[in-house]
Amino acid sequence: MTALFFLISPAELAAAFGIALLAGTVKGLIGFAMPMIFISGLSVFLQPDLALAGLILPTLVANGMQALRQGPRAAIGSIRKFRVFLLTGLLCMLLSAQSVRLLPQQALLLAIGVPVTGFALLQLMGKTFSIRKPTRRSEAAVGGVAGLIGGVSGIWGPPTVAYLTALGTEKTEQIRVQGVIYGLGAVALLAAHIGSGVMRADTAPFSLALIVPAVAGMWVGGQLHDRIDQVLFRRATLVVLLIAGVNLLRRGLLM
Predict the structure, then answer these.
(1) Which residues in the chain land under pLDDT 50?
(2) What is the pLDDT of residue 3?
(3) Distance (Å, rounded) from C-alpha 16 to C-alpha 160?
(4) pLDDT tens per residue, range 55-84
C-alpha cells in the first residue's frame, strides 16, 4: 500500500474506489460498461496508462463472476455459440494492444462511437433493428471491431452489446454471454498489456486494490438485475449504450 501512494494520493485512491463501486454496480445490473466507467472516471485525474492498468484486474474478476453465475456448463455453451466472435475479437485485441502507445486512437473512437450512438438512439426512439440470422461474416466483423477498440482503449463493450441486443438475446443469456466474451477479452487484455508495459510491478497494486469495491458493486447490481423484467433490462441497456457511444464520440473529438 505504501508503494501505491507513490503513484496516487489517498484522495485519488478514495475517488478511484468510488468509481470502481459505481462501475461494478452498473455491470452487475446490465452486464457491461465497467471499462467505460473506469476509463472515463479515472482519466479525469490519472494518466491514461495508469487508468487503463487500473481497470484490468477488476474487469477480469468481475467478468469471471458474471460468466460463471449460471455455472461452467452454461458458460461453455456460450463459448461454443459465439466462437467466431470470440476468436476474431481476441486476435484483433492482441494485435491492437501492442500499438497502444503509437496508434492514434481518435479515428477508432469515432468510428465505433458513431454507429453505436446511432443504434442506441434509434432503438430508444422505437426504430427496431434486429438480426434474425447472423452469419459468420457478421460475427467476425463485429468481433474484430470490438477487439481493435478494446486493445487500444480498454473498452470493447459497446459493439458487443449492440450486436447482442440486435439479436434479441434474453437478459440472463445476454449477461452470461457478455461475461464470457468480456472475460476472455480481459485475459487477453491483461496478457497484451503485460507485453505493452502498461501492467507492470508498480501499476499492478493499484489494479489489485480496485477489485474489492468493484466486486461489492457487482453484488449490488446483481440484486437489482434479478428484480427487473426483459423490457426494462433492454431499455436500461440501450440507455447505457447511448451514454457509452456519446462518451466515445466525446473522447474522439477532444483528443
Answers:
(1) none
(2) 59
(3) 26
(4) 999 999 999 988 888 888 888 888 888 888
The cell numbers describing 38, all together, are: 473506469
| C-alpha neighbours within 13 Å on the C-beta side of residue 4 | 17
**What residues contact 201, with CB distance under 8 A and at least 6 apart?**
none
- CA nearest 91: which of 223, 192, 233? 192
Report pLDDT for 219.
93
How far apart CA 28 and CA 220 sit, in angstroms, is: 7
Q: How far apart are CA 60 and CA 81, in angstroms?
A: 21
- Is 78 in contact with 171 (CB distance < 8 Å)? no
Q: Cell numbers for 218, please give them.
A: 457487482
Nearest to 80 by CA among 148, 176, 145, 190: 176
In this predicted structure, what is the pLDDT of residue 18?
Answer: 95
Nearest partner of 243 among 161, 127, 180, judged by Cα: 161
3-state secondary structure (DSSP) of residue 2: coil
pLDDT given for residue 22 in this prediction = 92
Count the neighbouring beta carbons within 10 Å of the beta carbon of residue 114. 14
Question: What's the gap between Cα 96 and its chain centre?
Answer: 16
Query: 3: which residues sit within 8 A by CB, 6+ positions away?
Result: 202, 205
Q: Is the dihedral of CA 204, 206, 212, 218 positive or negative?
A: negative
Summarised one tens digit per residue, pLDDT across range 77-126 is 888 888 888 888 878 877 776 665 565 667 666 766 777 787 778 778 87
